[in-house]
Amino acid sequence: xxxxxxxxxxxxxxxxxxxxxxxxxxxxxxxxxxxxxxxxxxxxxxxxxxxxxxxxxxxxxxxxxxxxxxxxxxxxxxxxxxxxxxxxxxxxxxxxxxxxxxxxxxxxxxxxxxxxxxxxxxxxxxxxxxxxxxxxxxxxxxxxxxxxxxxxxxxxxxxxxxxxxxxxxxxxxxxxxxxxxxxxxxxxxxxxxxxxxxxxxxxxxxxxxxxxx
Length: 213
What we know:
This protein is mainly α. It has helices at about 5-15, 30-40, 45-55, 60-75, 80-100, 110, 120-130, 140-150, 155-165, 170-185. About 60% of the residues lie in helices and about 0% in strands. The longest helix is centred in the middle third of the chain and has 19 residues, at about 80-100.
């Protein structure tokens, strides 16, 4: 795919959604971090159902740390891997309080040092909380980039690195949100909605879903 086609993809995505953002509910960088940690192998819908009550009870790392694992688990029991996530969240809260004054660090290395926070999660927090032009590659973005030819790669890291090279600077800040939403609602895994896709004529996918099927 050439540069002109890539730029047109993002122009269309921007025109359709000028101010994209995460579908996770949060009220602070800390709450965003916790929601992102909970969203691993879970849907944003299920996370939002749990975090409404959780953030009302424990909106800060100090308050969440005071819950302890036993107090946290009832709030997140409906989310997959909640035992492991509870342990990581409480350990993360302790680190935030002890080493960062209760604030979420605006630094990739410090974020990735938190239990349960990998490169993808750090990218989401840096981008969504502070507007940094990072691109977190999840399963949706990995699929969209390989299927369309936008930024093919064998691993999420390879796709991320290619996106950072080929996405025009003016689109880089919002690229993560546009691509994840496109993968979630249009370029779906089992049956992409090609007849409804605003990028269909730019996409290099050979097995497009035919109209009327």
